[in-house]
Design a protein that fits this description.
12 strands, 3 domains, 461 residues, Rossmann fold, alpha/beta, two-stranded antiparallel sheet, 51% helix
Length: 461
């Protein structure tokens, strides 16, 4: 009799454990790279994520490592996401990813479970040997929004093993990268891993909250992506579903230059840099290559029109308008590049007799903001000679820049970010809005006859 009672209680305890175990796991990380203060630009997104978590029925097992040093942001995390938050440092990042890898290896996260990783922080363009890109952690504040200088950075390449384990263990993994340039994270996708990128690999995202706004009980990650695109068209958000990858691979390389614009607020020169990259790769064929790529894009739009049975006259008009502007600037860029090439490199020495050789381009790219940065650092740490050394270097370069522009007044145009910003942002926005309509129509059309296994449709909120 005692034996029967013991077995009954033992089986009951197993059932209770099974019932308590949730198949839904979520890790929220980010909030780095922000200047000193109580708040961050990620606060509204956290509130919206908390609003979803209050109303869902998934009983998520949540891990969180967000921010570090902004009191209001951290209070929101504790209130909306849950207790146990830690500062998002490189050490904690690596530790957390190792812990989740171990959960998959040990079976704590089992076959058929889902794990959603939400990354909401600043993101750099892909650089060096990275397969993905770097994102900001809690230490330091961003100076340059393209390379995240001033902020400590970790690479999302660290997620590669987690993606491989998800495939090996048949766990549904969703990676939601909401940072700028997050299209670089698409390479982590596989048959069990869906990657949602808030922007293309060359485009800013600016802490857009469209993902959080569209979080609803019962929606799949694919549903949320398609709804989110409508409110962030300029960013060319990406999804690693089979259809998403097909559309992105064909369209994005041709359209990305028409989504770029210069932004004074963050010092971004994406529009100007888009000329520089193509020109440096092939200076002799620069103008012709750009013209051929535009025609290729027009042909592609014609093919999409045949598939969707729709016409995209407003998109074509927006692209033609932007291409006309680019054509004028291309000629000017070639003229300026030839002028720069005619100016010899020169040696510049600081007051403490440190000398180095700089090209005219390097001199003209110097900024007052860099001098201001080192001046502030020297004021904060007067005993640190590094700040004074760098300050003297950049002051000397800036002084030579002023003389160079006086001798060649047309060189001042190379630094007219304000003009490029005014001319390009509205045109990029228009192209983005109209391109989003084409993307959505094509996605819908291709979905009708598509039976390819889709990990993005298996992850449900």
């Amino acid at each position: 009799m005692k034996f029967l009672i013991f077995n009954t209680l033992f089986l009951l305890s197993i059932n209770l454990v099974a019932q308590e175990r949730s198949p839904n796991h979520m890790l929220v990380i980010g909030g780095g790279g922000e200047p000193e203060g109580d708040t961050t630009i990620f606060d509204d997104g956290l509130n919206r994520l908390g609003g979803y978590l209050d109303k869902n029925d998934k009983d998520w097992n949540i891990g969180v490592s967000f921010n570090g040093g902004h009191s209001r942001t951290e209070r929101i995390v504790e209130r909306e996401i849950g207790a146990g938050n830690t500062s998002f440092t490189e050490e904690r990042y690596n530790q957390l990813i190792s812990e989740y890898e171990q959960k998959l290896i040990s079976g704590e996260i089992q076959s058929g479970d889902q794990l959603v990783l939400i990354i909401d922080t600043h993101g750099a363009q892909r650089y060096g040997d990275n397969r993905t890109h770097g994102v900001s952690t809690a230490s330091g504040a961003i100076e340059d929004y393209d390379n995240l200088s001033g902020s400590s950075i970790v690479s999302l390449d660290r997620l590669q093993r987690l993606s491989e384990l998800a495939l090996e263990k048949n766990v549904n993994l969703g990676i939601v990268d909401l940072s700028c340039h997050s299209g670089a994270t698409q390479v982590l996708a596989n048959a069990n891993t869906c990657v949602f990128s808030g922007s293309g690999p060359d485009v800013y995202n600016y802490a857009d909250e469209s993902f959080q706004k569209n979080l609803r009980r019962g929606r799949t990650l694919e549903d949320i992506f398609l709804r989110s695109r409508k409110s962030m068209p300029r960013k060319f958000s990406m999804l690693s579903s089979p259809i998403g990858q097909r559309i992105q691979d064909e369209i994005y390389p041709l359209v990305k230059k028409y989504l770029m614009y210069d932004n004074e607020r963050v010092g971004g020169r994406k529009y100007q840099n888009s000329f520089q990259q193509v020109f440096e790769e092939s200076p002799a064929c620069f103008v012709r290559q750009e013209s051929l790529e535009f025609q290729e894009l027009m042909n592609l739009i014609g093919e999409v029109e045949d598939i969707t049975s729709r016409r995209y006259r407003r998109l074509i008009s927006a692209l033609e308008e932007y291409e006309e502007l680019r054509s004028v600037h291309r000629q000017e860029y070639v003229r300026q590049a030839n002028l720069l090439a005619s100016i010899p490199d020169e040696e510049i020495c600081t007051v403490d007799n440190y000398c180095h050789t700089y090209s005219a381009k390097e001199i003209l790219n110097s900024r007052q903001s860099t001098i201001d940065y080192y001046q502030n650092k020297m004021n904060e740490e007067p005993s640190n000679n590094t700040w004074e050394f760098n300050l003297n270097i950049h002051r000397s370069i800036m002084a030579r820049k002023e003389v160079l522009i006086q001798e060649n007044p047309s060189l001042a145009d190379l630094n007219r970010t304000d003009v490029f910003h005014t001319e390009t942002e509205s045109k990029a926005s228009r192209v983005g809005r109209e391109m989003a309509e084409l993307y959505d129509d094509l996605y819908e059309e291709l979905s009708e006859d598509d039976n390819t296994p889709n990990p993005c449709a298996r992850i449900r909120f």
